[in-house]
Amino acid sequence: MLPETIMINLICSLPDLVRAFISLFVIMDPVGNIPIFLSLTEDMKPEERKRTFHLALVTGFILLMCFAALGNYILFLFGITIESFMIAGGILLLVIALRILILGWKREESLPSESVGVVPIACPLLVGPGAITTAIMYLQASGVIVTTTAVILSFIVTWLVLKFIDPFSRFLGKTGSLVIARVMALIIAAIAVELIIKGITYIFKPF
After folding, report:
1. Is the separation of the CB atoms in 32 and 180 below 8 Å?
2. Of 22, 59, 108, 114, which is most buried with the most CB atoms under 10 A?
3. According to the model, what pLDDT value does residue 108 have?
4. Which pLDDT belongs to residue 106?
5. How many alpha carbons lie under 13 Å from residue 197 in its C-beta half-sphere?
6. Are 164 and 52 in contact (CB under 8 A)?
7. CATH architecture for the domain at 17-203
8. What is the pLDDT of residues 48-67, one digit of tens each?
9. Res 156: pLDDT
10. N- to C-terminal Cα distance for the chain?
């Protein structure tokens, strides 16, 4: 596909692109996860923390792009409809949001620095069931170009948040970071409920 054609398609699909980008960014929630990122990397040196975040971004981007590109085939392989996946992803996302709202984030054990970037930062904090469900849903509804562009934009903004995480955290303060984390968790819960409602609606929609 020619670059001019891609640009025309993006302009025509701008409302869908904006919705996809906002949905993915809110679900990935890099701003609300700042206290978690800092907690997981608090014992690291600046360069080590930088490498960890870089690994998390690369891993998360590849993972989400793979699901966005192969999501239809994965669903077909297991005989799963997008509606069922939306309901399952919505339920899992709701559980995660409620856990953050009620319990907050608690580290159960110390993790080696080389693995923290992959688990839990890349997955499930950045790319969890909600982000995967959203990517597959927009791939079905809006096409490859819109979904791919939304994923790229989401990770660009996430990279900016992680790049300036220290001054951003100092600006917000501990209380401000915790408040944002709870507010974003509430928004994630609302998105999860919306996914569940849409999935149920599509299943029982009259032909």
Report:
1. yes
2. 59
3. 47
4. 52
5. 6
6. no
7. Up-down Bundle (1.20)
8. 888 999 999 999 999 898 88
9. 95
10. 35
Q: Quote the CA–CA distance of 176 and 89 in Å, as a whole number.
A: 29
Cα gap 121→131, rounded to integer Å? 13
To which residue do tokens 């839990």 refer? Answer: 120
Q: Which residue has the tokens 């904090």?
A: 125
Cβ atoms < 10 Å from Cβ of 1: 8
Query: Which residues of the chain, if any, have pLDDT below 70?
Result: 1-12, 104-114, 177, 206-207
Residue 22: name the closest of 135, 154, 156 by CA.
154
pLDDT given for residue 107 in this prediction: 46
Q: Is 113 helix (H, G, I), strand (E, B) or coil?
A: helix
Helices (H), 79-164: 82-102, 113-116, 129-142, 144-163
Residue 85: how many other CB atoms lie within 10 Å: 22
